[in-house]
Amino acid sequence: MTRLTVEELNRADEAEFVDALGGVYEESPWVAERSWPERPFSSVSDLQRAMEETVRNASRERQLELLRAHPDLGERTEMTEESREEQASAGLDSLDPDQYEAFQRLNETYRERFGFPFIMAVRDESVDAIEDAMTERVEHSEPEEFRTALEEVHEIAALRLEELLEPREHERGSGP
């Protein structure tokens, strides 16, 4: 896959920009749409901050829609390619029957308590670490978990941007 540069995104019209970045936030192209006017971006980090700010400035209802756009972890249903790859990297696509049942129970308990799915940046996490996090976070207060879920959404978006975009030389950690 050819990675885009920030410069290319800065030159993109709104449709091209949204087409390129609409999947960074799960099933929520509105984040890219509302971030487009903030161009030009000086770096991938600058773009990431703008997208995060777009979400922070959205209404609580819009933020809740964003959270609800995420699939349940370990679920064997239709999901975006990005989510499928992220869950596969954590082994969630190959749960044994007992693990699958445990995840289903945890997902259901969590969703009933908070009204949105459990969200975690699972890339390269272990199944056990994810299950432990689910068990711990279901005990959070609603405001605490809403904040935590949004933080995880931003982490997922940052990882997706990292895959999509070519960093500038100074962002790679190389010399001037």
TrEMBL record:
Task: State the Gene Ontology terms under molecular function.
Answer: 2-oxo-4-hydroxy-4-carboxy-5-ureidoimidazoline decarboxylase activity
User: Where do the segments described as Disordered lie?
Assistant: 70-96
**Which reaction(s) does the protein catalyse, per the Swiss-Prot or TrEMBL entry?**
5-hydroxy-2-oxo-4-ureido-2,5-dihydro-1H-imidazole-5-carboxylate + H(+) = (S)-allantoin + CO2
Q: Which keywords are on file for this protein?
A: Decarboxylase, Lyase, Purine metabolism
| Record carries keyword Protein transport | no
InterPro entries linked: OHCU_decarboxylase, OHCU_decarboxylase-1, OHCU_decarboxylase_sf
For this entry, list what GO says about its biological process: purine nucleobase metabolic process
Kindly give the PANTHER family that the UniProt entry links to this protein: 2-OXO-4-HYDROXY-4-CARBOXY-5-UREIDOIMIDAZOLINE DECARBOXYLASE-RELATED
* Protein name (Swiss-Prot/TrEMBL): 2-oxo-4-hydroxy-4-carboxy-5-ureidoimidazoline decarboxylase
Gene from which this protein is expressed:
uraD
